[in-house]
């Protein structure tokens, strides 16, 4: 036996010994998690806690000194927590399907693989499914860094009683997928509207002759191309792998670093973490200074607004609902004061949730 082989065998023996310890510790951790699940069930507490999830990620990231980066450690713990949650109570999570959509990728990034994923054809179906208690949670896109708000998500908050429970940001990269390799022979392009818009310049420059056909999701675009054996799809590389399509061109989005914010919706409230965000929606009387009066309250209380959007009211023409995100939790005294004050000035007011604020770069 050479000295190199002897050294490798010794190192591998060390790894085998460590693996045995790691497995034993993982199973021991799972046993404690199972007991926590029992306590939660007896006290009727939610199984999934985004505040606890955030706490675990922050602690293990700080304890990680390399050589593996913190992102890898987080991914390992995501799967461990996914598995232990399944021991406590198998979660059913609805998402905009089918499998291979960006919502599916976001679901896996957030909850891991040890959950029951429920693909649904529209964003509205996801929110209605959560509202009707057919699933535990749903995950949907709410805004994009280049295209702005996802209107169908905002509108459905007015028709359901769901709450925002958590948020996450995911970088989006589009690929052109299909069976054909000759781009000039492509006559039809399938894709979701917002995805087509984010790739508009590339598509116009490279496929000006092709007919663009809108689908309900990027994954449905890939599935349609796979079934019809024609055209090309604007979708993710993962969708191409799932439906057996070639990557004709990668990275066709017009703006690099394109990011979508996804939200987890449910019916439970998340406790404060000290780093939270709150979302509300309200309507105001159509009179001078009404919106200014509400926005001024945030300034007076030194509360940072992170987003404000307006959506037309369907019943009253030229009147609007205002969606606002701001830093703070509903249980914070300052936030309690301002929400009480705002309600008094609104025609309608709806609390949409307080949840851990997530770093866009994570």
TrEMBL record:
Protein's gene: pheA
Location in the cell: Cytoplasm
The name this protein goes by in its record: Bifunctional chorismate mutase/prephenate dehydratase
Protein task: Catalyzes the Claisen rearrangement of chorismate to prephenate and the decarboxylation/dehydration of prephenate to phenylpyruvate.
Prephenate dehydratase domain span: 92-267
InterPro entries, per database record: ACT-like_dom_sf, ACT_dom, Chor_mutase/pphenate_deHydtase, Chorismate_II_sf, CM_dom_sf, CM_II_prokaryot, G/b/e-P-prot_chorismate_mutase, Preph_deHydtase
GO cellular component: cytoplasm
Any coiled-coil regions, as ranges: 1-28
Residues the UniProt record annotates as site (Essential for prephenate dehydratase activity): 260
């Amino acid at each position: 036996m050479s000295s190199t082989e002897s050294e490798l065998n010794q190192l591998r023996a060390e790894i085998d010994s460590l693996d045995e310890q790691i497995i034993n510790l993982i199973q021991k951790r799972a046993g404690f998690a199972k007991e926590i699940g029992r306590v939660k069930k007896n006290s009727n507490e939610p199984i999934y806690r985004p505040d606890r999830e955030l706490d675990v990620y922050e602690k293990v990231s700080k304890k990680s000194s390399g050589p593996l980066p913190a992102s890898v450690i987080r991914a390992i713990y995501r799967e461990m927590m996914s598995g232990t949650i399944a021991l406590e109570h198998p979660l059913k999570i609805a998402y905009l399907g089918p499998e291979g959509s960006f919502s599916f990728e976001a679901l896996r990034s957030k909850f891991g693989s040890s959950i029951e994923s429920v693909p649904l054809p529209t964003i509205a179906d996801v929110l209605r499914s959560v509202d009707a208690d057919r699933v535990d949670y749903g995950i949907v896109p709410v805004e994009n860094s280049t295209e702005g708000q996802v209107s169908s998500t905002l509108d459905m908050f007015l028709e359901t009683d769901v709450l925002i429970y958590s948020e996450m940001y995911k970088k989006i990269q589009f690929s052109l997928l299909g069976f054909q390799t000759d781009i000039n022979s492509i006559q039809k392009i399938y894709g979701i509207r917002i995805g087509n818009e984010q790739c508009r310049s590339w598509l116009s420059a490279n496929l000006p002759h092709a007919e663009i056909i809108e689908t309900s999701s990027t994954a449905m675009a890939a599935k349609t191309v796979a079934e019809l054996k024609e055209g090309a799809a604007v979708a993710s590389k993962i969708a191409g792998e799932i439906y057996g399509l070639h990557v004709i061109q990668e990275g066709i989005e017009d703006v690099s670093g394109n990011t979508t914010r996804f939200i987890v919706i449910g019916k439970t409230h998340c406790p404060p973490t000290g780093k939270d965000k709150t979302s509300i929606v309200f309507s105001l009387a159509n009179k001078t200074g009404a919106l200014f009066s509400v926005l001024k309250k945030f300034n007076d209380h030194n509360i940072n607004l992170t987003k404000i959007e307006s959506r037309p009211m369907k019943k009253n023409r030229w009147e609007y609902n205002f969606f606002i995100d701001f830093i703070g939790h509903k249980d914070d005294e300052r936030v309690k004061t301002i929400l009480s004050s705002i309600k008094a000035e609104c025609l309608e007011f709806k609390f949409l949730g307080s949840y851990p604020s997530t770093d866009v770069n994570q």
